[in-house]
Write the structure tokens for this entry.
Amino acid sequence: MKTLRPSIVAVLSVLAASVVAGEMPQDALIAALKSGGHVIYLRHTSTESDYADQITADPANCASQRVLSEKGWTQARDIGQAVQRLHIPVDEVISSEYCRAWQTADLAFGHYSKTAALNFEPAETYTDAQLARMRNRVSPLINAPLVAGGGNRVIVGHDDPFEAVTGIYPEPQGVAYVLRPDGAGSFTVLGHIDPDAWPNS
């Protein structure tokens, strides 16, 4: 969580308009994911409290960070089970170094790789330069080539880096955004699925 200056809000609003196609119906989102070739940006599931810990948190020390609540552990498992039940193929899972992110990834998918590229900038009120750094780190992970005819890429991260790259604030915790890379360095946001809204079939 953070506070944005009005000038930054205006810039992000323009950015969002350039990448959001409009919300696809949920059944269309699921069908797209079943076909592979998409990116799921999953904000970590619910934590015991909600505050900006990025200024003081040490990514290598879970005790210095917000951690998943019991609800968050259940949400992560439920999301992973829904992905399996719906036969959504997953090729790779990438997580930030924060414990709440990689624990979400592990509980949901059973495997992940960590990268600092998904971490926060160490501030609560971001400058234009800090937003640009988050955007420049996250964009390549979204736009990296996907295997033709293969599965989807899952990115498990946080609210602020996602907003920096899309202009969309992802809420609630555990929400999954479906993105479609175009193969030319850009992508389209197709829609989102709330943590308790994954269909049964």
Notes: The two ends are 34 Å apart (CA to CA). The first strand starts at residue 39 and ends at 43. The mean pLDDT is 90.
